[in-house]
Amino acid sequence: MHAIEKILAKAAGLSSITTGEIINCKVDLAGINDLYLQTILSFYEMGGKKVFDPKKIIVFLDHYAPASTIAQAENQKQFREFCWDQGIDLLMDIDQGVCHQIIADKGLAQPGMVVVVTDSHTTTHGAFGAFGTGVGATDLAIILMTGQLWFRVPEIIRINLEGQLPKGVYAKDIILDIIGKVGADYAVYKAVEISGSVLTQLSVSERMTLCNMTTEMGAKASYIQPDEITFSYLKERASQEYEVFTTDPGYQYTADLTFDVSELKPQIAAPHSVDNVSSIAQFIGTPVNQAYLGSCTNGRVDDLAIAAKILKGKKIHPRTRFIVVPASKSVLLEAINKGYVQTLIEAGATFVTPGCASCLGTHEGLLAPGEVCITATNRNFPGRMGSNKANIYLGSPAAVAAAALEGEIVNPAGYLNEER
Amino acid sequence: MVEVVRGNAFLFGPNIDTDQIYPGRFLDITDPIEIGKHAMEGVVPDFCEKFKTGDIIVASTNFGCGSSREHAAVALKAIGIGAVLADSFGRIFYRNAINLGIPLVVCPNIDKHVKQGDILTVDITTGNLVNETTGITIKAQPLTGYVMSILQNGGIKSLIKSQYGQ
Ligand code: SF4
Q: Is residue B63 within 8 angstroms of chain A, CB to CB?
């Protein structure tokens, strides 16, 4: 069996499971975002009174942090009252940041766990060896009532990453390159394991970027076998004992791909789909109105560090605005301590409160018709960050910061002195 | 549950994501009727004016990919969608729509056999699909198992309510 199957089997109380089987799994951590008031509405519609276990439920007021319409404020108010009524202590209010980053900061996703959030990028927690998957409001309401949810045991794809990452090339470039090659629907209903020697060159933050973006190839969940890098990250954060599962030798993957990253160039996903990917060379000189650094994909301390490195002592282009959104409160505090915030503000960055901001086109940095944005987020669908007549290019934090500096898309490698 | 759905086809391409089915700027709305007014607005701004209750969406691959927003399914339910037929569906949208009792039918290459405005009849229990406009018969995947029992109960809420309602 694969480690993912062992996690699911344990959660379902079964000794073995087979691909395609529908099983009912216990959920270890269930998260709700402020977009999904429907979760609470569905809970009551189904006759719910008390949640199954208030300690396993976490509520995030992140997408609308802080509220910018009365309707958003009303939704958040109802969430707070629900938490207070139900004894849910893990209410992550508007000061905390994006759901997936909070889970990571607090070490709440651990190897062997089943993590379900009302958010498609819950695949992020595969970076910790957890089974993380996104669902909608009514599915999450069922978990609130029963502590369980039905899943189809997925086929599993393995993606091996080999070689040595070149300067100016990051996890974001790796995953964009792969999505461009396999397509946006390659892994629909399936799980994706990422393995290979490149993982030892990647921090937990970059592993999260990889796992986060498997959603954009349709994946249901992702997985990285926990190792020393995982354990040392969790040591400072997780109090609980966790169980690490491993894949049996000879497990038959439904597909087994290998990518050598040694020759990889920085990548860009051009409008209007995440799999519309080419080397950045194709886009050099494209003027940008807005550069955006943030989100659960690339709003972490090392992402801000790269931007600070590129922009230290410089000024962004006068016709470009640069929006920076630290993914969480702890990211913001650490970036302040390390001086990145000062550097970026002096260079002309506009800081927005930790949260989802305009990653999903609701507030704080929307695009006008005809505008162009380069962003370190994960989606460039029409209208994703404002007008559906705007053009969104996805790239690495380095590509974003270098574009902010020049006012057009450039190859970031030339702006970084040392290796990686 | 309606087993045989008949309606006009509205044709869409591949990778229609939930931002296009239901744009993010309307996510703070909670009333289903109001949510319905923005159905498909990200692709066809006046979709709701052309759509009639019972009509059918036909799409290529990966319909409903992207964000997990249930609003996308709520919007289609609210306008009285007859069914959605597609080559394949985004996983979370699939769950959301089935949970709400919307028949989603997987039908390989369906977009090649249907034109905008064709009248279709589909039996969701057998997967038999007739394009009345062209006379072509197509075989889609029938709905079975747990998915079918959710639809037969009019959605998962009534199913769960009968099992667990406290
Ligand atoms: S940062 Fe963007 S992708 Fe991540 S949870 Fe928020 S809206 Fe979704």
A: no
CA of A152 to the centre of ligand 1 (A): 25
- Nearest CA of chain B to the CA of A232: how many Å? 32
Q: Check B160 against A46: CB less than 8 A apart.
A: yes
Question: CB–CB of A126/A110 below 8 Å?
Answer: no
What's the pLDDT at B165? 72
**What's the CA-to-centroid distance between B25 and ligand 1, angstroms?**
14
Q: For A69, which residue in chain B has the nearest alpha carbon?
A: B28
The two domains A3-259 and A267-415 share their CATH topology (first three levels equal):
yes
Class of domain A267-415: alpha beta
The answer to whether the CB of A339 falls within 8 A of the CB of A358 is no
* Ligand 1, pocket-test mutation among A32, A94, A98, most atoms within 8 A of CB: A98
3-class secondary structure per residue, A93-133: CCCCECHHHHHHHCCCCCCCCEEEECCHHHHHHHHHCCEEE
Count of alpha carbons within 13 angstroms of residue B51, beta-carbon side: 27
Q: What is the ipTM of this complex?
A: 0.91
Chain A residues lying within 8 Å of B67, measured CB to CB: 119-120, 360, 379
What are the residues whose beta carbons fall under 8 Å from the beta carbon of A272, sequence distance 6 or more?
A: A380, A381, A382, A391, A392
pLDDT in tens, A118-134: 999 999 999 999 999 99
- Averaged pLDDT for residues A177-206: 97
Strand ranges, E, within A163-316: 191-195, 221-223, 255-260, 267-269, 277-279, 290-294
Q: Answer yes or no: are the C-beta atoms of A221 and B92 closer than 8 Å.
A: no
Number of CB atoms found within 10 A of residue A68's CB: 13
CATH superfamily of this structure's domain B4-163: Aconitase, domain 4 (3.20.19.10)
CB of A384 within 8 Å of a chain B CB? The answer is yes
Pairwise CB contact (< 8 Å): A361 & B23: yes
State the Cα–Cα distance between residues A232 and A230, nearest whole angstrom. Answer: 6
How confident is the model over B3-21, as pLDDT tens digits? 999 999 999 999 999 999 9
Residue boundaries of the structural domains of chain B: 4-163
| Contact yes or no for A379 and B20 at CB 8 A | no
